[in-house]
Amino acid sequence: MVICSGRSKLDTGCHGRLLKNSCNVLNTCSTWLIDSCSGRGLSHHSGVKWITAAEFEDIRYEKSEDGQIAKLTINRPEVRNAFRPLTVKELMKAFELAHEDEGVGVVILCGEGEKAFCSGGDQKVRGEGGYVGGDGVPRLNVLDLQKKIRSLPKPVVAMVAGYAIGGGHVLHVVCDLTIAAENARFGQTGPKVGSFDGGLGSSYLARIVGQKKAREIWFLCRQYDAKEALEMGLVNTVVPYGRLEETTVEWCRDMLRHSPLALRCLKTALNADCDGQMGLLDLAGNATLLYYLTEEAKEGKKAFLEKRDPDFRKFPRFP
After folding, report:
1. What residues pair up with 35 in beta bridges, in sequence order?
2. Is pLDDT at 116 greater than 90 in this prediction?
3. Residues 60-83: b if buried by 16+ CB within 10 A, e if exposed
4. Class of the 45-258 domain?
5. Model's pTM, two decimal places?
6. Where are the domains of the chain?
7. Mean pLDDT, residues 206-235 taken together
8. Higher pLDDT, 85 or 11
9. How far apart are CA 99 and CA 105, in angstroms?
10. Arithmetic mean of pLDDT, 49-70
11. Listed residue (193, 99, 88) closest to 141, CA to CA
């Protein structure tokens, strides 16, 4: 048994003197048990066995053993899980993997450890036109990530422990649901550091907490604890940190029992209220998907392939 204290990343290799002949050795660190040969992690708090589904540098992409829940973890605890261009690029890729995976029904977004969900953009790499990656190009690609979360046809749940600040606050806001630990803290810093989010980070925030409260959050840059966040409708529920993942998984399991098409259509319908033409595009896309599943649509396709006129008379014209 290898005891890790305070380390953010674990050595899961099956080699070296310490792990020699250790295919059943477990590395224990904080809330994780890692099977050093299979890459499977068992959370102390939820009892879920998480399996690595893809390898990244700044994030972890894991799925529950039954493959129905995907978990994306920002893994930069040394900077309170602040994001840089690479982080956002990897999150986009992981969300796309979850999007295309027919087995995945719901996605969890969280940060490594109990101190921070995400503290926003890493100010150390902020340049004149955005956040600068290894290629030297400044980017604001977190805006693309926000749109990806909104347009994903599956529920996305923010699992928040510690700080959700700045751009990290916006990330939880654009998720469909937020489960917060008692130690969670929420707030904006933009005007303090010469930045702001005039898009979903402010306009959609106002839809959630109201215009006056949204202006307070942005204009004063104060921080709010989990109880205050719950009272203003910024989060869905607050639980002790030790039950955070357990509760989040319970909520995910509840949604997995429901109709995936209904959840998909509900998400796009709720988004369309403030997403403009792009929201209508997603809503219309779902309507088209549902129509393609009907016998009426199949008759049109069949008639075209058979080079005949379709017979739509047999389908009812509902009042």
Report:
1. 26, 40
2. yes
3. bbbbbeeebbbbbbbbbbebbbbb
4. alpha beta
5. 0.81
6. 1-38, 45-258, 260-310
7. 98
8. 85
9. 9
10. 98
11. 88
Which tokens belong to 184? 């969670």
At residue 224, does pLDDT exceed 80? yes
Which residues have C-beta within 8 Å of that of residue 281, sequence separation ≥ 6? Answer: none
Which pLDDT band holds residue 43 (cuts at 50, 70, 90)? low
Residue given tokens 């803290």 in the structure block: 185
Cβ 57 vs Cβ 93: under 8 Å: no
User: Is 256:105 a contact under the CB 8 Å cutoff?
Assistant: yes
Superfamily the domain 260-310 falls into: Lyase 2-enoyl-coa Hydratase, Chain  A, domain 2 (1.10.12.10)
Three-state secondary structure readout of 10-43: CCCCCCCCCCCCCCCCEEEECCEEEECCCCEEEE
For the chain, how far is it from start to end, CA to CA, in angstroms? 68
DSSP code string of the chain: -EEE-S-SS----S-SSTTTT-TT-EEEETTEEEETTTTEEEETTT--EEEEEE--SSEEEEEETTS-EEEEEE--GGGTT-B-HHHHHHHHHHHHHHHH-TT--EEEEEESSSSEEE--B-GGGB-SSSEE-TTS-EE-THHHHHHHHHH-SS-EEEEE-SEEETHHHHHHHHSSEEEEETT-EEE--GGGTT----SIIIIIHHHHH-HHHHHHHHHH--EEEHHHHHHTTSSSEEE-GGGHHHHHHHHHHHHHTS-HHHHHHHHHHHHHTTSHHHHHHHHHHHHHHHHHTSHHHHHHHHHHHTTS----TTS----
Average pLDDT of span 261-268: 96
